[in-house]
Amino acid sequence: MQKLYDPYKKYRPYFLRWDGSIILHAFPSVFIATIISGIVCLLYERCNINLSISATLTPVLSIVVGLLLTYRTNTSYDRQGRRLWSKMIFAIRGLVRHICINIDSKSNVGSLEQKAAINLLIGFAFSTKHYLREEGTECDDLKPFISSISIDTPNFVPLTKQVAKVIEKEKKKQNLGSKAFKWVKRKFKSKKQKPKNYNLPLAISLYLTSYVDKQFKNNIIDQPTANLLYINLNTLIDCLSGFERILNTPIPLAYAIHLSHTVWIYCVSLPFQLVSTMHYATIPVVLIVSFILFGIEEIGEEIEDPFGYDDNDLNLDHICNVIKEEIQVTTIKKRVENQLFDNDRIIPSEAILQPSGSSTFDRTLYEIETRIR
Hints:
- By secondary structure, this protein is an all-alpha fold.
- The chain folds into 3 domains: 1-158 and 196-336, no CATH class; 164-194, no CATH class; 341-372, no CATH class.
- 67% of the residues lie in helices and 0% in strands.
- It is built from 14 helices and no strands.
- It has helices spanning 23-45, 57-78, 82-102, 108-133, 159-174, 182-191, 200-217, 223-248, 253-278, 282-302, 316-332, 343-346, 349-353, 358-372.
- Helix 9 runs antiparallel to helix 10 (282-302).
- The protein starts with 22 loop residues before the first helix and ends with a helix.
- Mean pLDDT is 76; it is low at 153-160, 169-192 and 351-358.
C-alpha cells in the first residue's frame, strides 16, 4: 500500500522501518548463502575437511560486483519517471492557463468547449496513469473527465498486443522447435484476459489538437498563442512516449542474468575463503555481505517499473488528484479583469499630481503600501 510522503513530518529512522524495504525479497537468497556457509564451517571444524581456498579472489570479485551493482541501480533509477511526470504537469498547467485566459468563452458553446477541453487535460493525466498500469479505460476516476468524447478507438492497438507481437517475433527466431507447446500458452493466457488498454491519452491529445485548431481558424486566438498551445501539446506526447519507453524497455536479460550469476558466485565462494581464518564467525559475515549484495540487486529490480502499486513506486494516484484539485480550484474563479492592474487602483491620480513634499510623499507611500496589502 502506497503512503503519501509528507516532507514536514518526522518519520522513524530508516534503520527501524519495515515498509518499503527489500528484506523479504532478499531473504531467500540470503538464507541459502548462509546455509552454505554453515555447511562449509561444519565440514571444516567438525569433520576436518579442509575446504579453504586462497583469499586473493575476494578483491577481484569485489571490484567486479561493485561495478555491476552500481550500473544496475543507476540504470534502474534513471528509469524512475518522476521527471517526466513533472514535465507533464508543467505542460498541463500551461495549457489550462492559456485556455482560461487567451480563449474567450462568451457564448454558451464556447464556454462548454472550454470546460470540455480543461476536463480532457485532467483526463489526460488519469488516462496516462491507467494506461501505464494496463487497467483499461473503464475506470471510475476517469469517466467524469472524458464523457464529452468517444473512447471507442478500434484503430489504436492495445499496449499488451504491441508487446505480444514483438515477443512472438523474437520467439519465432529463437525457439523454432517449441510450436507444439504454443497452444498450451495461448489457452493459459486466454484465461487471464486484461481489460482493453487502448492508447486513450493519444486519443485525448487528438481532440485537444482539433480544439486548438478550431480556435485558431475561427480567429479566436492568434498565431503566437496557438504556437504555445501546440508546444505544450507536443510536450504531453513527448512525456507519453517517455513513459512507454520506460514501461516497454526492461534491463537487458543477458545483463540481469550475468549480474545474478556474479553475485551468487561471490557469496558462495566467500565462506571458502574466510573459514580458515574466521572459523564460525564466517557465518554472520556471509550473512551480512550477502544481505547487502542481494539487497542492492533487489533494489534495482524493485525500482525498474515505477508505475505500479508497490511502496517504492510513484504515487500516481496522489499526483493525478493534485492536478485535478488545483485545476478545478483555479478554473472556479472568473477570468482576471484588466481593471485589477489599472494604475489608478494602486496609485490614485490625485496623489500623482500633488507636489513632492516630504509629508505628502510619506503619506502617498503609506497609501500605496496599504492598497497593495
